[in-house]
Amino acid sequence: LPQPPTTLTDEFGIALSNLADAAVAPFTPTLRLGVTGLSRAGKTIFITALIHNLTTGGRLPGFAAMTEGRFIGARLAEHPDQGVPRFAYEQHLKALTGNPAAWPESTRKISQIRLQLKFQSQRWTRGWQGPTVLNLDIVDYPGEWLLDLPLLSLSYGEWSAQAIRRAELPHSGGAADAFLNALRTADEQAEANEPDAERLAASFSEYLRASREDGALSTLPPGRFLMPGDLEGSPALTFAPLPGPTGAARSSSLYAMMERRYEAYKSLVVRPFFRDHFARLDRQIVLVDTLRALNAGPAAVADLETALTDILACFRQGDNNVLTRLVARRIDRILFAATKADHIHSSSHDRLEGLMNRLVAQAARRAKFAGATTKSIALAAIRATRESVVEEHEVIVGTPRAGEVLDGATYDGKTEVALFPGDLPADPDRLLTAPVALNFLRFEPPAKLEKNAEGNVVLPHIRFDRAIDFLLGDWLR
Amino acid sequence: MKPPFARPVDPETGEVTAERRPRAFAPEAAPVPEVIEVLTDDAVVVDAEVAEPPRLTSWLGRIVWIAGGLLVSLALGLATERLVSDLFATQPWLGWVAVALVVVLVVALVAIVIREAASLMRLRALDRLRAEAGRVIETDDNAKGKAIAAELLGIYGGRADLARAREALDSNGRHVFDGAEHVRLAERLLMAPLDARARALTAASARRVALVTTVSPRALVDIAFVVFESVRLGGDIARLYGARPGVVGTWRLVGAILAHLAVTGGLVLTDGVVEQLLGQGLAAKLSARLGEGVVNGLMTVRVGIAAMRVVRPLPFVAVKQPMVKDFIPELGNVLAKTER
């Protein structure tokens, strides 16, 4: 039987927080947007672009509230939770619009931000009192940590079995050998001692890091082993999977100690992370970097599918009504977004969306059954390329990042090329079974950005406005 | 010399599947054209809104009409020729005046015919555009969506009141990648201000009808006024949305509006039937004439809505279609005014 992801105390706390929210909702409602995505999926870019577009009145033609003139504006507000760092919007924007422009660095810590949106409601219940204010809370975090959420419902034995099986898979390659050797020499029934535990944990995390380096593997929990944050070296991070003992393990054995530490990891690290940031979401956008997985091959695509399905199972999805919202908030709209849509020509966007549908099919089915509305689109929060046609090839024109390789040519991050990344097959299943000739390069951010009348840069994008409309539109009616 | 290559063949269809390898080109080879093609193909459009008038005449009847028409034309031509030659016989300068008048008449007639034809074509273009937009909303075809937006920009190209909206549509449309989104954007930017003005026209018309019905001494007067107001309202709304109905155009338009009312009559009736009954009941309590006025006013509202649906070049998708009940407060104003 899978364990519930939260304890009874957690549930009580969550319900109380929801009640407190419901009490102030008639005056200033708060919408929690869950920006979900594995590492390098584009969470930070998405949040930066969202804040910039809303606060400066960017070009969002598909965002109905703005096009119809009901959206008055947005500003950054102080987040009520003082214990978490603020999302470094200004730094990220500076990096993006600097000279030379650069993508923000990968996120290492959790951070959050609150946006206040002001709009004129069409409904007479709200509209008569003038403009309405809506708080929009967003959290940014390292994508690796998301991999931990499925652990909440796994016991140590189950997780160990999964992790060892995955290490033994052929595509794990040489990265896992050292760890498997260490595992063979270890005796799980032996008396627990710290050096043994440290040795095992070190080789395990070494294996996780190495396999992430040489592939796009997405299913590598525990995530803190990849991005430890401020827990580096603590006992809760010093464990490794062990094959289950034949009999009952003594409480002083290595196995029992590892099990205790795994449980401690869950209750000290994973559960608070989930409880504080994911248990009370209203809307969710799932950002998926499908192109990176496609570059790495069918195994990585299949991996990505498993990871997404496991992670999305942890979220509370379903429809809300007035009464259930008081104590139990659920995610009633989920947007599955294939990010970096600017890396392929717009004529292939339909196929990219098809692949996205295929990858999240299970998760979407479950969400729909629970009563949530889902949609999938191909988007680029910031568009780094232009489109063109060369010799009947639909190409994208942009500057590949330094070190990107295609056809033996290595790019220096300054030359502009017209890239034809290959045809996405019409049937997404082929991408999960056999290798397809595809090569997506990563591009530098757009160099010359337009400015609007107020002197703010206008960030180009693809379907970002539709994403915002889907996620926030009905709250701004 | 081109390098040899092998291409896979699809086992199901037997066709060569164009599987293209990833490639990089020099940027000079890549022109960045943003040319928007305008829809020119006149595909067979199912004319849902402007229904074909029933054919009353068989081919025999048509022969009678054509022969009769030719005879009348011959008679007119002969009479004119006689008149001119008679005038030449009495006074040569009178003859020249008559010739000049005939030329002016012919030129004016041709001009009228051309204008009528243009107005009919415009009505048809709006119809086709609406059907096309409905399809694009379904299929999400990017090129066609772009073409629809471009065509709308052409239709409203000379309108001063839509200058800002046109500019916004043009600049934003470049960053849209979905056909349906193009149509929705055009509707929000171009149609929404026109809708608001069409609503105002309808409301004003309904108020006038209600007022005239209430105070007019004879039933015949208010029937005539309702007909006059309805035709005028239909023409005004058509002009607002970019149709330029002439005589024949107006005739077609009135026919289309009536047909639309006949088709959707039951539908529109259920919308706000409660309000109608309430309004009629309440108003009728105050005075029987006032009750009739309200009913006639609502009738005019329905004509206005039908006219909007018939001439609007885009279907109601992103913008809500006005309903009869939205106009009840307007008529309430009339009541307040008339009671004072």
Please render the helix and strand layout as text:
The complex is a heterodimer of chains A (477) and B (340).
Chain A: H1 8-24, E1 30-37, H2 43-56, H3 64-67, E2 71-77, H4 89-97, E3 111-119, H5 124-127, E4 132-140, H6 156-168, H7 177-185, H8 194-213, H9 254-277, E5 283-288, H10 290-296, H11 298-312, H12 322-327, E6 333-338, H13 349-359, H14 361-370, E7 373-378, E8 386-390, E9 393-398, E10 405-406, E11 409-410, E12 417-420, H15 429-433, H16 464-472
Parallel strand pairs in A: 1-4, 1-5, 5-6, 6-7
Antiparallel strand pairs in A: 2-3, 3-4, 8-9, 9-12, 10-11
Helix pairs in contact in A: 7-8, 10-11
Chain B: E1 23-25, H1 59-90, H2 92-139, H3 142-155, H4 163-173, H5 179-215, H6 219-240, H7 247-270, H8 273-286, H9 288-311, H10 328-339
Please explain how this structure is put together:
The complex is a heterodimer of chains A (477) and B (340). Chain A has helices spanning 8-24, 43-56, 64-67, 89-97, 124-127, 156-168, 177-185, 194-213, 254-277, 290-296, 298-312, 322-327, 349-359, 361-370, 429-433, 464-472, and strands at 30-37, 71-77, 111-119, 132-140, 283-288, 333-338, 373-378, 386-390, 393-398, 405-406, 409-410, 417-420. Chain A is an alpha/beta fold and 477 residues long. A 7-stranded mixed sheet of chain A has the order 2-3-4-1-5-6-7, sandwiched between helices. Chain A has a 3-stranded antiparallel sheet with strand order 8-9-12, with no helix packed on it. In chain A, strands 10-11 form a two-stranded antiparallel ribbon. The two termini of chain A are 43 Å apart. Chain B has helices at residues 59-90, 92-139, 142-155, 163-173, 179-215, 219-240, 247-270, 273-286, 288-311, 328-339; one strand at residues 23-25. Chain B is flat, with a radius of gyration of 28 Å. Chains A and B meet through strand 8, strand 9 and strand 12 of A and strand 1, helix 4 and helix 5 of B. Strand 12 of chain A pairs antiparallel with strand 1 (23-25) of chain B.
